[in-house]
């Protein structure tokens, strides 16, 4: 065990879709325990305390990503006690899962959940729960997400991040005539996407590939949740000139979520529409942001880069963008010198906050608070005996690669657990500072992207992290741990389909894929040492769990 620690005495809480209710998983928890991949009675390494399942998803429609995460955590911190809680279709179930795990004794909690209807511009219910458990001494980590896409070659936006768009202020201009005709009676205008003083442009054109299933979009604007007066919606003009409107929202919430399935590879022209029919209170000019659930198929964007008030490419949002949560990006374990192309980008900006002990009404901050995200980078492409079924490792029957930030976040959580055991005096502030402060800087791998916006302070270095913590006092007694009979290890080169997980729900789990070279059990820890060195109750839950995002059909990498 690294520095004599293996996580003993620390409970790590895990939040994802399910642990042992999937109807399609290729193994059972009993299989995993017998193979030494999970703790429990019969574990060949003597790790006999089973995972505490506080709450599991009963539907059977999930993929047991939480169990895959538990295998990752156990391979790095085999002495830690593990607890699991499932998240449902909305932010309130995430809030409850966070508090339930803290009540179960977890001092490190990691989730891989991305909810498209979670507030982008203020704390929501999940953010309040994170603050509450942090005050109790919990270190909270979350996956950054798997929603970055770089523009395809042959287009002006080639090499630039093109998924995610935001501006600090809505700029009104006239809508296209066809959009106005579709809107009907009322007073409407559209966002002016033009940059650099160019003539007004009421559309942003995205080039999309034909898709076999819908992708989802969240459009949000900076008004207080539950007290929003404005109404914004999306209008789409397709290649035939036909207009569709997307306006799935709840009154009082500054959140519009909807789904869209491209029926042909073509240009699609999107307009952000402001409805001012209600009068002056609706004629606001807030910050606006949209994020798509695209994992692939977005070839190009008409507008890209950071120009004036506009920024294209930021896909970290919700509780993952809050200062208290440690957001974890993904690096491939076989070559952790640049991030996975899909790893989501920051930063994140908040405009409102509230004190739930005083009033549920959010109030404007003195000014926008921009939080650098992600915080650090962990490794993915970790091998398991079942997750994900669509990425079997060639030549190794029964071995599957687990890609995405949903695999990277548990590696980081396990390292934090080692730190908690090594230095019991270290609190969340010291642990977080040591984790980020000792990380090894990593290139973004792309000249259009500053490294901190995609890798944070860099690759976790477990040895340096422990050395930076307060004096641990007497050295802990190392706990011998025989090698498990089966263990995860990187697989061959990634398949060309990118970071896509299995399953049929509407969200995406961490990314799943295939790395190269042997990386099993404690060898993964060695790699980490060397290589790493509530107004929302009414909101419709069109969420997408990074497989960890359940409510959309699973796109491939797991839920936030």
Characterise the protein shown here.
This protein has 560 residues and is of the alpha+beta class. The chain has helices at residues 29-34, 65-76, 91-103, 125-135, 177-183, 405-422, 428-437, 452-455, 462-467, 521-530; strands at 11-16, 52-55, 81-86, 108-111, 139-143, 165-167, 172-173, 188-191, 204-208, 215-221, 232-237, 243-246, 255-260, 266-275, 288-292, 298-301, 306-307, 310-312, 326-332, 348-353, 363-371, 376-380, 382-384, 400-402. Strand 11 and strand 12 (243-246) form a beta hairpin. Helix 2 packs parallel to helix 6 (405-422) and helix 3 packs parallel to helix 4 (125-135). The longest helix has 18 residues, at 405-422. The chain is globular.
Q: Tell me the radius of gyration.
A: 23 Å
The unreliable regions are: 475-560
Number of helices: 10
Shape designation: globular
Could you tell me the mean pLDDT?
Answer: 85
Helix coverage percent: 10-25%
> How many strands?
24
Span of the ends, CA to CA: 30 Å
What is the subunit organization of this protein?
A: single chain
Largest sheet: 7 strands, parallel
For the largest sheet, list the strands in their spatial order. 2-3-1-4-5-19-22
Which structural category fits the helices and strands? alpha+beta
List the helices and strands and how they pair.
Elements (H helix, E strand, L loop, with lengths): L10 E6 L12 H6 L17 E4 L9 H12 L4 E6 L4 H13 L4 E4 L13 H11 L3 E5 L21 E3 L4 E2 L3 H7 L4 E4 L12 E5 L6 E7 L10 E6 L5 E4 L8 E6 L5 E10 L12 E5 L5 E4 L4 E2 L2 E3 L13 E7 L15 E6 L9 E9 L4 E5 L1 E3 L15 E3 L2 H18 L5 H10 L14 H4 L6 H6 L53 H10 L30
Parallel strand pairs: 1-3, 1-4, 2-3, 4-5, 5-19, 19-22
Antiparallel strand pairs: 6-15, 6-18, 7-8, 8-14, 9-14, 9-16, 10-13, 10-15, 11-12, 11-14, 17-18, 20-21, 23-24
Helix pairs in contact: 2-6, 3-4
């Amino acid at each position: 065990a690294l520095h004599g620690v293996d996580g003993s005495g620390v409970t790590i809480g895990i939040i994802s879709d399910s642990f042992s209710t999937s109807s399609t998983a290729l193994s059972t928890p009993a299989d995993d325990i017998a193979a030494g991949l999970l703790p429990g009675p019969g574990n060949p390494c003597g790790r006999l305390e089973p995972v505490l399942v506080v709450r599991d998803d009963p539907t059977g429609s999930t993929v047991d990503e939480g169990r895959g995460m538990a295998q990752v955590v156990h391979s790095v911190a085999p002495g830690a006690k593990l607890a699991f809680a499932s998240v449902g279709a909305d932010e309130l179930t995430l809030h409850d899962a966070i508090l339930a795990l803290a009540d179960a004794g977890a001092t490190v909690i990691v989730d891989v959940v991305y909810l498209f209807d979670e507030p982008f511009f203020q704390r929501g219910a999940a953010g309040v729960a994170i603050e509450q458990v942090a005050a109790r001494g919990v270190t909270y980590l979350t996956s950054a997400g798997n929603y970055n896409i770089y523009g395809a070659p042959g287009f002006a936006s080639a090499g630039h991040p093109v998924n995610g768009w935001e501006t600090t202020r809505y700029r009104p201009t006239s809508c296209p005539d066809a959009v106005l005709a579709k809107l009907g009676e009322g007073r409407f205008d559209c966002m002016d996407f033009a940059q650099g003083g160019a003539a007004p442009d009421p559309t942003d054109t995205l080039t999309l590939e034909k898709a076999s299933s819908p992708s989802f979009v969240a459009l949000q604007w900076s008004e207080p949740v539950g007290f929003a007066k404005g109404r914004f919606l999306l209008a789409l003009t397709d290649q035939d000139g036909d207009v569709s409107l997307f306006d799935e929202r709840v009154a009082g919430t500054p959140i519009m979520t909807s789904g869209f399935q491209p029926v042909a590879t073509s240009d699609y022209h999107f307009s952000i529409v402001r409805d001012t029919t209600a009068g002056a209170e609706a004629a606001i000019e807030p910050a606006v942001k949209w994020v798509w659930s695209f994992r692939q198929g977005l070839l190009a964007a008409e507008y890209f880069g950071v120009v004036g008030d506009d920024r294209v490419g930021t896909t970290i949002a919700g509780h993952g963008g809050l200062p208290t949560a440690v957001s974890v990006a993904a690096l491939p374990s076989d070559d952790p010198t640049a991030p996975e192309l899909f790893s989501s980008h920051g930063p994140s900006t908040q405009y409102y906050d509230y004190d739930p002990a005083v009033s549920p009404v959010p109030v404007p901050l003195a000014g926008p608070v921009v939080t650098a995200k992600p915080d650090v980078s962990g490794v993915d492409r970790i091998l398991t005996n079942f997750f994900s079924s669509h990425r079997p490792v060639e030549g190794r029957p029964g071995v599957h690669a687990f890609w995405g930030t949903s695999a990277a976040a548990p590696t980081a959580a396990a390292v934090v657990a080692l730190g908690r055991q090594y230095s019991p005096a270290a609190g969340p502030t010291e642990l977080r500072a040591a984790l980020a402060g000792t990380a090894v800087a990593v290139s973004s791998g792309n000249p259009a992207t500053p490294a901190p916006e995609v890798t944070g302070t860099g690759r976790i270095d477990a040895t340096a992290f422990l050395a930076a913590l307060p004096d641990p006092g007497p050295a802990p007694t190392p706990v011998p741990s025989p090698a498990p009979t089966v263990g995860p290890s990187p697989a061959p080169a990634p398949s060309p389909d990118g970071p896509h997980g299995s399953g049929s729900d509407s969200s995406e789990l961490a990314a799943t894929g295939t790395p190269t070279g042997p990386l099993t059990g404690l060898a993964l820890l060695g790699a980490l040492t060397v290589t790493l060195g509530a107004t929302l109750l009414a909101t419709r839950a069109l969420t997408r769990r990074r497989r960890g995002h359940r409510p959309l059909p699973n796109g491939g990498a797991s839920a936030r």
